[in-house]
Specification:
Blueprint: E1 4-16, E2 23-36, E3 41-45, H1 52-60, E4 67-72, E5 75-76, H2 82-89, E6 93-96, H3 100-103, H4 110-120, H5 126-139, H6 156-167, E7 174-178, H7 186-203, E8 206-211, H8 214-220, E9 223-228, E10 231-237, H9 248-255, H10 294-298, E11 303-306, E12 309-312
Parallel strand pairs: 3-8, 3-9, 6-7, 7-8
Antiparallel strand pairs: 1-2, 1-4, 4-5, 9-10, 10-12, 11-12
Helix pairs in contact: 4-5, 4-6, 5-6, 6-7
């Protein structure tokens, strides 16, 4: 049984239109299907606005799909009662948000922030909760001296360690990290990434790692999911890319990242990113793709399945 499964998930937001009357719809996530096994790490990559964070929110239950099914350990998440969802799912999934400066309550001491999930779920007696907080601080490399400090007294890297400790408080099976290093200085990004790798291996965590940096995603993940304009366009084993990448967009993402080992010719994408309120017909990427033909506009490309590698493209890279 899969740990987590998304089947045909759509998220559509209704917004006020620019015209005097009526509303527009933002297609934030379209027909997303995804399977995650216990202990597996999936990296999600794509440009800003492609739906990565919406997908992360769906996975942790912060966003209810407009259509489609989310199953956790075989049980439909949104058919559970709110109480069952909190006890069976909420305590089993942790999330690390993008900016630790806004994700932590600036008025609470660090020990209280880490302890909060334990208090909410009434995990053990007070003495055990205090021991668990000390254990978590040690686990993420925080000194005991910061227990009574507030977030503003810590560095960015330390604040993100606090966020990681809080996410691990209830011993989750799944950790979702939404751009966990993008708000940090370059000097501390590697430390946080190394910590996440160490924790994943030590605790046997499944992980969804969201980032716009495809090289980081490749390093962190077993599989890479590439998104464009709300759609998953390719999923590939991390060890197989970029050589085996088939969708032109994934190839373009890799080409935009400098390599110290090989000379890479950047693929320039011409034209603006289409609006999520009026996505192109057929393949969403066709308006910027150098391989696009009339066939690409006619209908959505079928899903091609090559073992663990899937993609949607009628003119794939070879």
């Amino acid at each position: 049984m899969s740990l987590l499964e998304l089947d045909g998930v759509h998220v559509v937001h209704r917004i006020r239109a620019a015209r005097l009357f009526g509303h527009d719809h933002v297609y934030a996530l379209t027909d997303a299907s995804l399977t995650l096994a216990a202990g597996q790490t999936i990296g999600v990559v794509g440009e800003s606005g492609c739906g990565k964070s919406t997908l992360a929110k769906v996975i942790v239950g912060l966003q209810r799909p407009t259509q489609g099914t989310v199953r956790y350990r075989g049980e439909s998440l949104w058919q559970m009662t709110a109480t069952a969802r909190a006890s069976k799912f909420g305590r089993d999934v942790g999330m690390i948000f993008q900016d630790p400066a806004t994700a932590l309550n600036r008025r609470l001491p660090i020990a209280k922030i880490i302890r909060d999930p334990l208090d909410v779920h009434r995990e053990g007696p007070p003495a055990e909760r205090a021991d668990r907080v000390r254990e978590l601080m040690s686990l993420v490399g925080l000194p005991d001296s910061v227990a009574d400090a507030v977030p503003g007294q810590l560095s960015g890297g330390q604040r993100q360690r606090v966020a990681i400790a809080r996410a691990l408080a209830l011993r989750p099976a799944l950790l979702v990290a939404d751009e966990p290093t993008s708000a940090l200085d370059v000097s501390v990004r590697a430390q946080i990434l190394n910590l996440l790798v160490e924790l994943r291996e030590r605790l046997g965590l499944a992980m969804v790692f969201v980032s716009h940096d495809i090289q980081t995603v490749q390093r962190m993940s077993d599989h890479i999911v590439t998104m464009y304009l709300g759609r998953i366009v390719e999923r590939a084993p991390a060890a197989a890319v970029p050589a085996a990448a088939r969708h032109p967009y994934m190839r373009a993402l890799f080409s935009a990242t400098p390599s110290l080992r090989h000379a890479v010719e950047p693929i320039v994408l011409n034209g603006p990113v289409p609006s999520a309120t009026n996505p192109p017909s057929g393949c969403n990427f066709r308006t910027r793709c150098w391989k696009a033909t009339a066939e690409c506009a006619a209908e959505l490309p079928p899903l091609t399945v090559l073992g663990e590698h899937t993609y949607r493209c009628v003119h794939p890279e070879l």
